[in-house]
């Protein structure tokens, strides 16, 4: 993609993320002192850390009960959220999450305490550490006249192929997050790997002089990916609602299948790519294309194989690799459609020319 991508509507939602990353990058370069805090599951464990001197902690005993999540709220967030504390507005995730205070001062509800942070603080939430679920503002004391913004990052799933970034804002008693503040999915697997490695090493107590260069490189990579147009808006995938949304979903799926015939994709693979359940994907796919997933995949494979047979002298085994089929399977389905073997088909067409 080119930089023209950022002149589209999506730039309205991506530009704030890029600005926040540049803000963080500037702070790293001009203030190398560590402002990292690793959230802990109890206030007692948190106090064992060597915290920045400006950090304040207020004990805040939980009032409600933990409610375990037994089902999936969204297919692409499978295995991410483990539990909620509805009465305390807390959530427990199975993944690392990073919050960066990009403006103002923020009070973060975590487990059984409140962490009072300032601009430039970066709070790492390890898996299973309860944190604010985003439904309440970040001001526990008198909120009047106060404003703060935080940039959040996570990978959505273990071993993900990119990072999700979004901004939330608290203003007085109001709190919100959404596309207008900034939200995007950066589909860059290496960045996700750096993020997960950085979080794990930081959580395990690796010295900051070793982890900060990782963080600096991650921020630089994310800026470069966004500037190059390698970014999607709205939580990592376009929203698929209504008839036009369903068509967009299938259009993305068809492009993904066509571009990856050699990978032998399954329904689950493609459904995961467009962030819907296999059942929803299968239903819309058949409705839009009139074919099953396997029928369409076979159609594309034979179409590509025919073009390669007619327009090149590429060996049959190379064609098999390109379309993701073993020779016997390719020979069988090709013969079923054309009534002859791939080699015979190529020779017949050459003779007729």
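-> sequence recovered:
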């Amino acid at each position: 993609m080119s930089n023209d991508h950022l002149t589209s509507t999506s730039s309205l939602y991506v530009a704030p993320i890029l600005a926040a990353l540049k803000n963080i990058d500037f702070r790293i370069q001009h203030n190398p002192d560590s402002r990292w805090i690793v959230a802990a599951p109890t206030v007692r464990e948190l106090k064992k850390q060597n915290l920045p001197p400006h950090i304040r902690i207020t004990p805040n005993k939980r009032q409600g009960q933990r409610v375990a999540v037994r089902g999936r709220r969204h297919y692409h967030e499978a295995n991410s959220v483990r539990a909620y504390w509805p009465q305390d507005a807390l959530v427990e995730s199975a993944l690392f999450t990073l919050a960066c205070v990009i403006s103002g001062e923020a009070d973060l509800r975590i487990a059984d305490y409140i962490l009072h942070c300032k601009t430039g603080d970066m709070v790492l939430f390890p898996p299973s550490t309860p944190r604010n679920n985003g439904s309440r503002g970040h001001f526990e004391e008198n909120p009047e006249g106060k404003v703060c913004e935080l940039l959040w990052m996570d990978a959505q799933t273990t071993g993900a192929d990119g990072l999700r970034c979004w901004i939330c804002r608290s203003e007085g008693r109001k709190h919100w997050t959404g596309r207008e503040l900034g939200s995007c999915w950066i589909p860059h697997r290496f960045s996700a790997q750096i993020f997960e490695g950085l979080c794990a090493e930081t959580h395990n107590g690796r010295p900051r002089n070793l982890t900060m260069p990782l963080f600096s490189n991650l921020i630089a990579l994310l800026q470069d990916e966004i500037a190059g147009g390698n970014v999607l808006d709205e939580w990592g995938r376009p929203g698929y609602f209504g008839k036009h949304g369903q068509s967009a979903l299938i259009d993305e799926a068809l492009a993904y299948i066509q571009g990856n015939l050699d990978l032998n994709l399954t329904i689950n693979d493609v459904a995961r790519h467009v962030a819907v359940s296999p059942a929803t994907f299968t239903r819309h796919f058949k409705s839009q294309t009139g074919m099953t997933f396997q029928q369409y995949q076979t159609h594309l494979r034979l179409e590509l194989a025919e073009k390669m047979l007619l327009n090149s002298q590429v060996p049959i085994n190379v064609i098999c690799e390109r379309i993701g089929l073993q020779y016997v399977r390719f020979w069988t389905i090709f013969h079923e459609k054309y009534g002859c073997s791939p080699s015979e088909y190529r020779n017949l067409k050459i003779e007729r020319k």
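The longest strand covers residues 163-171.
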